[in-house]
Structures are given as C-alpha cells and as structure tokens.
C-alpha cells in the first residue's frame, strides 16, 4: 500500500515537473515552416503551439478545404450533387428557352441555376465534386478557417437568382413548351385532315 502511494506520487511529480519545465522553457514564438522543410520534425525551440491568428500554418498545395463555385462557368449539370456521398450540394435548375451564354472554356449554357447551395457542415472534404465537374467551376480553396456561431451559416448559397426571377424563367419555359405542343398538335391535325 505504501509502495503504491509512493509510486503514484512519483509519477504525478514527474508529469507536473515536465509541465512546469515546458511552461517556463520558452516564450518565443514558433517559426512556421512547411512540411517539406528538412527541419520540420526537428524543431525544438519556440512554443509548442503557434500564435493563431497572428501566425498561420502554411497551406499545402494539395490541401482540400472550403468549396467555392464560379457560377459564370457552371452549366448546372448536377454531376457534383449526384456524386456527393453526403448530399451536401443542393441544386435546382430551370431550362432556358435558348442558349444563355458560354462558360470560360466555351461550353454553351442552357440551364439557369435557381438554387446552388453547399452545406459545409455536412461536407466531408473528399473532393469528388471538383473531379467530376466538366467546366471546373467548383474548386476547393485554401480557406480553412470558417468559424461561425450558427450552424445554418455554413450553408453557402452561390446562386443569386431571386424567387421572382426563377418563377419568371419557369413561366417562359412552360409557355415555350405549350406553344411547341400546340404547333405539333396543329400539324398533326392538318396532316390527318389532308389525308
């Protein structure tokens, strides 16, 4: 019993002395180096933590962080939403009555994005959405600090189409489809009447 008490006291003393040693050992700021630096794992001077936000860790080139969408290049193909394993991308498209422009790579745009939301609270940063995008409009940026107070603030809305404009675009497409159907029906009746 006495031996266990001494052993517990000795172990606690060693841990406390190590903590106190590190507390007073260095108050210099840590030098930030990249992982590719030869001295990265041999750093012994400076504090154990960086002084964030004054100091920030370097972001690797292949880092996968915050998603961003360039809507001018989006053709609203919905591939990113279909491949997403956690369904964090929500897209609603409206067919246009004619071509509405081109992307930076020359692809013709024929759909409006009434809604293009990404819920970064659900995102698992796999990068699959960036791989399947044919126009490369969805990318992962080097922004990793997106601290918010409300969980709903992590849902980013990239489409700037208002509900009124979306309803107008839907009505125009429905009108065009009705006109096509009426013309097709008239042509069929004319064909049947002439035969």
From TrEMBL:
GO terms for cellular component: membrane. InterPro entries: 4Fe4S_Fe-S-bd (IPR017896), 4Fe4S_Fe_S_CS (IPR017900), NADH_quinone_OxRdtase_chainI (IPR010226). Keywords: 4Fe-4S, Iron, Iron-sulfur, Metal-binding, Repeat. One of its GO terms (molecular function) is metal ion binding. Residues 63-94, 114-143 form the 4Fe-4S ferredoxin-type domain. This is NADH-quinone oxidoreductase subunit I. It comes from Mucilaginibacter lappiensis.
């Amino acid at each position: 019993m006495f031996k266990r008490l001494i052993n517990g006291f000795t172990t606690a003393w060693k841990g406390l002395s190590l903590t106190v040693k590190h507390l007073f050992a260095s108050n210099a700021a840590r030098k930030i180096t990249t992982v590719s630096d030869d001295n990265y794992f041999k750093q012994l001077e400076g504090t154990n933590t960086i002084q964030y936000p004054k100091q920030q860790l370097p972001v690797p080139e292949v880092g996968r962080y915050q998603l961003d969408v360039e809507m001018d290049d989006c053709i609203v193909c919905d591939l990113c939403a279909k491949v997403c394993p956690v369904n964090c991308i929500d897209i609603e498209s409206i067919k246009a009555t004619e071509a509405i422009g081109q992307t930076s790579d020359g692809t013709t745009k024929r759909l409006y994005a009434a809604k293009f939301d990404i819920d970064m609270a659900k995102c698992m940063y796999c990068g699959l959405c960036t791989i399947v995008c044919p126009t490369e409009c969805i990318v992962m940026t080097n922004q990793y600090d997106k601290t918010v107070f409300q969980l709903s603030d992590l849902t980013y809305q990239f489409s700037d189409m208002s509900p009124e404009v979306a309803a107008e675009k839907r009505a125009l497409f429905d009108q065009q489809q009705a006109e096509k159907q009426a013309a097709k029906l008239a042509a069929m009746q004319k064909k049947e009447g002439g035969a």
